[in-house]
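Quick illustration for those who missed Monday's session on complexes.
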Amino acid sequence: KDLSLIRNFSIIAHIDHGKSTLADRLLEIARVTDARTKKDQILDSMDIERERGITIKSNSATFRYTAAHDGQSYILNLIDTPGHVDFTYEVSRSLTACEGVLLVVDATQGVEAQTLANLYLAMEQNLEIIPIINKIDLPAADIDRCMQLIDKTLGLDIDRAVAVSAKTGLNVDQVLEAITKFIPAPSGDPNAPLRALIHDSFYDTYAGAIMKVRVFDGVVRKQDRIRMMSTGKEFGVTEVGIQTIQMIPTEDLQAGEVGYIIAGVKSVEDTRVGDTVTLANRPATEALPGYRDIKPMVFSGLFPILGDDYENLKDAIAKLKLNDAALFFEPESSTALGFGFRVGYLGLLHMEIVQERLEREFHLDLINTAPSVKYRVTTTDGVVHEVSNPSSWPDPTRILKKEEPYVRVNIITPQDYLGNILTLVQEKRGEQQNLIYLDDGKVQVVYLIPLAELIFEFYDRLKSISRGYASMDYELVGYQESDLVKIDILVNAEPVDALAMVTHRATADARGRTMIERLKDLIPRQQFLIPLQAAVGSKVIARENISALRKNVTAKCYGGDISRKRKLLEKQKEGKKRMKQVGSVEIPQDAFLALLKSD
Ligand code: GTP
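Prediction with guanosine-5'-triphosphate bound:
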């Protein structure tokens, strides 16, 4: 195997700038070229029908390309960076698997927050960067302006830039030429102990967890015994190979190559992205850089609306977890909502995706409590508590120190919206770190903000005050001390655990008041007066009453026909079933849903 003819690369871009479209087009063109030159081996075997029941979920692929500039036949490995939108920085470390990247910029949009985040990542790894200006078929495309941005704002070499339309295929062959010309060949010692970096892994019902790897040193073959360097767990290799459109088994995978390993691993938790695979009988001494534990950052309680669904929910989360190492869950019980789970996610988007899948694919009706971050609370006995559930906040009289996670947020916006955005970040307790005027009338602002504020109505407001034009990216920077308090919501003097929240003292009054006002509209009147209170410790910060009234649902229907009356009664009966008892008060399930949804 000739390393000098291998190119390992990734495509990086801000969301929607055309990463997937470009990947598809590259593969398509490579296939056509190869059919024409008939020099290809890999792609020949691709045509062989091999029914294995494995669905390829990502855009990673190996393909051949005969370069026009030197007539050589190259093996190109396109490595897909995992698409977790939360925490680009943590996950995209799998860029370590390549020697170069295509940085795609939409010619109608210019540089956005994730363009920069991805660029910095590629630079950190010393990768060769080829700027790609995409969507030049659109009338609004401004290639000159984009070239200028690439030169001045990004500081990249515009001589290497290629302007393309991934949609029509215009100039995409020049991208392949640029890859073979400018991205360096991999280097690696095939005789050294094995070191293979996992850049992706996915679960297959038949084969178990399949690792996609880049081999840096050594060789891995079928029947080798491999060891995961982060956990020390060992597995027997049953197959190695490369992935074109299907997975093609090969003799071995050597230093510089990209391919897959199947080793009867039961769960993707054991094949973590960023981990290094070595051989059990000749282990490498040092793992490759790139391993960093992915930790859940946002937590919420998930409860089935129908109590009977608890087991189904448990099975469903466990199934999702098979393919998602970043998903965390443990049982939780709430007096108001019953039995459920505390689930940890990478971020809000991850949370939304997981919940949508649970509802859609597993047909579950769920109540999701307000998202929370993981606080650190030191009590007077010196113990540090990690609190990801507000209802388990320690007794305030025993608290010595309170800390919360902070993120660095990078926002790019047209200048017109700068004022609005600065107001928003200040309101969110942000500390300004940097403000840079970019070359195309946009501004980049960098702020330190508590993660808890970022997950509370930040993104939606950013989008609405900038008419959708601002983009953002964030990374965790660590914990800072903060004046946090827990707000209890009491219904008829009983605290409702599912509604407890932790916030900064400065925003506690407003948050408590909003909650009480909304709760007042959502709980129906009952035969007795119900006081609603928000309290911090023993101090009540907001109070409302729901006055007593016997509810007569049929009263509105005077003169109405009988069937309508019956329907209403029926509906009320159904609603009754879905009541949650809090002390002596019945709270409709819908009230919880409504309260928690808009948070
Ligand atoms: P995510 O997968 O969401 O991160 O987006 P992406 O960066 O992979 O972008 P994708 O390839 O899905 O393209 C986003 C949208 O832009 C799609 O609607 C594409 O059809 C469109 N698009 C991509 N390339 C071009 C192009 O060259 N010209 C035009 N007109 N549209 C394009």
